[in-house]
């Protein structure tokens, strides 16, 4: 699907159903509006997105989100020391395989989320990554209700 251009605020996503590639809209698209997808993980500050795009695809993005840096403040909101601690912890998670490893990941996530509840809003990207990590741990441990609670916290910021 190389005919769709990049935007950090895309109006479409690519999904696979079996061996079939589908282009799905993620919001209302106006007549004549270009269809776009994000080539990279969108949940990063503008400067990080630009670095990834330059390194991986050899271009600089000039979408409205990059020009205005509109969401950057929300993505890095909260106490810097708190989000750096969470950022480092998420980077160390690795690839848990056993139930015991998933239990350890969940315990770490719960401790960090509880300790930083008043220091970071749910819009902080590193807190969101920690919530995703906690949700993954709950899913792997078959704790469906807990997974749903963590997942629900990520919905509004991801929009």
From TrEMBL:
SUPFAM superfamilies: SET domain. GO terms for cellular component: nucleus. InterPro entries: H3K4_H4K5_MeTrfase, SET_dom, SET_dom_sf. Residues 1-40 form the SET domain. Pfam families: SET. This is SET and MYND domain containing 3.
């Amino acid at each position: 699907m190389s005919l769709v251009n990049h935007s950090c605020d895309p109006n479409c996503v690519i999904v696979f159903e079996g061996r079939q590639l589908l282009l799905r809209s993620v919001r209302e698209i106006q007549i004549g509006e270009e269809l776009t997808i994000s080539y990279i993980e969108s949940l990063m500050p503008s400067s990080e997105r630009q670095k990834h795009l330059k390194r991986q695809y050899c271009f600089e993005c000039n979408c409205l989100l990059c020009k205005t840096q509109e969401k950057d403040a929300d993505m890095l909101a909260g106490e810097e020391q708190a989000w750096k601690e969470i950022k480092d912890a998420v980077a160390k998670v690795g690839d848990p395989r056993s139930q015991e490893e998933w239990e350890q990941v969940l315990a770490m996530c719960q401790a960090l989320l509880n300790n930083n509840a008043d220091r970071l809003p749910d819009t902080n990207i590193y807190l969101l990554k920690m919530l995703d990590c906690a949700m993954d741990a709950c899913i792997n441990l078959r704790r469906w209700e807990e997974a749903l609670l963590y997942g629900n916290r990520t919905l509004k910021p991801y929009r």
